[in-house]
Amino acid sequence: MRFRACVVNVATFFRIVQAIEKLQKTCIIKFTETNMHIICNNDNNEGGIQVWSQIKVNSLFNDYRIQSNANNEITMAMSSEALLAALKSPSSNTSLDGEEVIMKLAKKNEHALLSFEISGMSRVGHGMRIVHDVKINVLKPVDVAKLTEPLCPTPDLHILLPPLALLRTIVDRLRPMSDLLAFQANNNKRLLLAIRNDSVSVETEWNDCQNPAAAEDEGNGDDEEPRDPNKMYSVCISTRSFLKFLNIHVVSTTTIACICQSHCLILYVYIGDVTDAGGVLTFYIPAIIDDDGR
Amino acid sequence: MSQSSEPQEALPPVLVASVHDVRYFASLLRGVNFSNRATVTVTERGLTITVEDARTLLGTAFIFAGVFDEYIYNPEAPQPRSPAPQAPRPKRKQRPQRPQNPDYSETESETESEDENDAYNPDEDEDRQASDNAAFEIPLNTLIECLNIFGTAGPSTGNISTSINPIGAGRGQGGGVGRGRGWQRAANEDEDGDGGRRLARGIEAHFGGGAKEGKTGMRLAYAGGGYPLTLIIAEDASGPTTTCEITTFDPEPHLELDFDAEKIVLKIILKSSWLRDALSELDPSCEKLTFIGNPPTPQDGSGSGRNKRRQSDRLGVAKPMLRIQASGTFGSTEMDYPNDREVLETFECQQTVSFSYRFGHILRTIRALQSSTKTSLRIDNEGLLSLQFLMPSPKLRAENGADAFIEFRCLALDDDV
Questions:
Q1: Displacement of CA B54 from its chain's centroid (Å)
Q2: Which DSSP string corresponds to B355-402?
Q3: DSSP-derived secondary structure letter, B94
Q4: pTM above 0.90, yes or no
């Protein structure tokens, strides 16, 4: 089993891990020949939010070499906090000149490690080398096979979200007011975030969100009746989970939300341009069915 | 069924108010946000927000109609079926008080006309019992959070009012004779740039927002007893719109702390920063705060130097005019204010007075104090403290003529506590 890569885009890698770290204490990373998949599928994180991401290797790394008996794939579990700490020093402003970050699989005292080797010149011109070792568990192929993305029905609609940073300020205000957030949208550019409690009901509405055409819809459009574009679809989710998802605003450019009514909310966060995306992070936020069946 | 509901719907809402930038409104609300349940009283002249704590402290924000771009108050008709147009109410005698409010800030240049400052007193609370108002209770914190939903009504950006205001004030007053140094400098430096700035502000007001800094506009409506307070909040025409419906409650009777202007034993007007700096020095663990006032000694007015005064202090000849004393488990702090017009713009005290208050209650006022420019501190013979904070409006004075203010009244601690 061999693995070695040079991290070129430390900043992006760091930001992704930053958002992941807020979500879950441990994460799973699966490296394949072409992609890096960061997976958070722990059931015991609050609200049951899951992340399945797919990031093209060449958007973060170069000199990427991977070898294993399992179809040249390596899957490992690690503490997201430790990974974040390892990426923090090279991504900070005090980084070294002509810096190079090598990420490789290593073994020390019979323990598997993901080792980050940072080398460069200090301000005064001395050569410096810093090594961060992140303890990992390499998953067996049997366990890897058990990792499956959640199954979801065909989404009722797709809608492009407004800038996540703006959404975050709004949801931040809503969080103390309610644990439940209603996420509603239609196929006519309308998006609505609503909360309700004993003393207040707050609804924030956008009327200028694009609805990207879903590929499946075009294929079998004939046999289905054209749906009313103004019909609102709604899903009730945990406000805190949505807020945690919104931490990803640091890397996002385009985000598409899909509503599977009374099932879940799926969010596709594109890194870089949609057409030439360096990767997609997929967030699943399960619906909460409350007593009113909202 | 439908017949009976129609005329009800035809009734105009009791209150409709809108403003293109909620920051000033939000900062006024924030000033009294020390308890979540607030009573809002709606009158023709504006809104008052009253909050109470421990049956001892009463905070009231007076928000005049001029703070809003649009302010329509329709007194609730006694019977819903008789929407007879009410005759225009006779102007109350307090009406001329509004234009006089700016006098408060002019005391610096016209210190001799101190007596007029009494006009600033909002001691017409009796009015609230009159029929021409509507009152309801709301969760104040929720209202503030809703106003700040886009993050553009927060305290950090709200400070802009304090930086703009001195310029406006300077213009209103012309030269300014004995004005505080900071103000004078501001007026001088900005003499040239003033027109431009004013213009810019005018344009901003028109388009409802600067290029970078988002401004939140708001429209609130209250249909009447039993209806929620409805807020529509938006940053600009293209952005999102937020609709909030805040449940209103029937008002509970509040603590009545009547301040009798004739029984004043200590009256001080000072720049808010002088009081703010003093209070921020104090350790939060303090339990008790005492205001001690001494009548000014006639020969001490020259301000001939701190050393001299301190010497005489030690000899026990002259007492400080104002001393703030705080004590707690870990010790006590004393702060003396010099007899200087720059510091204590107005000082009236006939004989030595000393009253103590719970420090925690005084701390409740700090948020209002921080965003105010001037403070009037009065104590009556029973120790009832009245603190009034002038909240500088970001609008030009000429436009609305009234800065809002926040008043706190606090009962004194018993002497033996």
A1: 21
A2: EEEEHHHHHTTHHHHHT-SEEEEEEETT--EEEEEEE--SS-HHHH--
A3: T
A4: no
**Cα gap B88→A6, rounded to integer Å:** 79
Write the residue in A162, A199, A202 that is nearest to B242 by C-beta. Answer: A202
Q: Cβ of A253: how many Cβ atoms within 10 Å?
A: 14
The pairing of beta strand A74-79 with beta strand A127-138: antiparallel
Long-range contacts of B177-184 (CB under 8 A, 24+ apart): B177/B109, B178/B108, B178/B109, B178/B111, B178/B341, B179/B108, B179/B109, B180/B108, B180/B271, B180/B342, B181/B342, B183/B108
Could you tell me which CATH class the domain A157-286 is placed in? alpha beta
How far off is chain A from B150, nearest CA to CA, in Å? 6
- ipTM score above 0.95: no
Contact B243 A202 (CB under 8 A): yes
Q: Measured on CA atoms in the order A166, A172, A174, A175, is the torsion positive or negative?
A: positive
* Closest residue to A170, CB basis, from B142, B150, B243: B150
Decide: B408 and B377 in contact? Cβ < 8 Å.
no
Taking CB atoms and an 8 Å limit, are A177 and B142 in contact across chains? yes
Number of Cβ pairs closer than 8 Å across A and B? 57
Render pLDDT for B330-366 as a digit per residue (tens, 0 to 9).
899 999 998 888 888 999 999 999 999 999 999 999 9
For chain A, the structural domain boundaries read 2-144, 157-286
pLDDT in tens, B7-20: 445 678 999 999 98
Pairwise CB contact (< 8 Å): B247 & A172:
no
Q: What is the CA radius of gyration of chain B?
A: 23
Chain A nearest-CA distance from B2, in A, is 27
CB contact under 8 A, A200 and B244: yes
Cβ within 8 Å, pair B247-A200: yes
Q: Which fold has domain A2-144?
A: Proliferating Cell Nuclear Antigen (3.70.10)
Contacts of residue B189, defined as CB under 8 A and 6 or more positions apart, other chains included, come to none
